[in-house]
C-alpha cells in the first residue's frame, strides 16, 4: 500500500509514531507498507486512516 507510506511521510511521522497514534502494531504497519501483508484487516486500515486524518478511500491504491 504505497499510499499509506506516502500519507505517513506527508505528516512527517515514523512508523512508530503512526503505531502509537493508531493503535496498530508497528510491525503490521511495516508489513502493509512493504507489501508483505497484502490483505490488511479493514479495522487496521480504518484505525490508520483515522490517525492520519484521512478517509479510507485516500489509502487505497488506484
UniProtKB/TrEMBL annotation:
- Provide the leader sequence positions: none
* HTH cro/C1-type domain ranges (all copies): 4-59
Report whether Ribosomal protein shows up as a keyword of the record: no
Bias class Basic and acidic residues marks the residues at 7-20
**From what superkingdom does this record's organism come?**
Bacteria
Q: Which SUPFAM superfamilies match?
A: lambda repressor-like DNA-binding domains
Q: Supply the Pfam families for this chain.
A: HTH_3
Q: Which InterPro entries match?
A: Cro/C1-type_HTH (IPR001387), Lambda_DNA-bd_dom_sf (IPR010982), TransReg_Diox_bact_type (IPR050807)
Which residue intervals make up region (Disordered)? 1-31
Where is coiled-coil annotated? none
Swiss-Prot/TrEMBL keywords? DNA-binding
The entry's protein name is Helix-turn-helix transcriptional regulator
Q: Organism, per UniProt?
A: Heyndrickxia acidicola
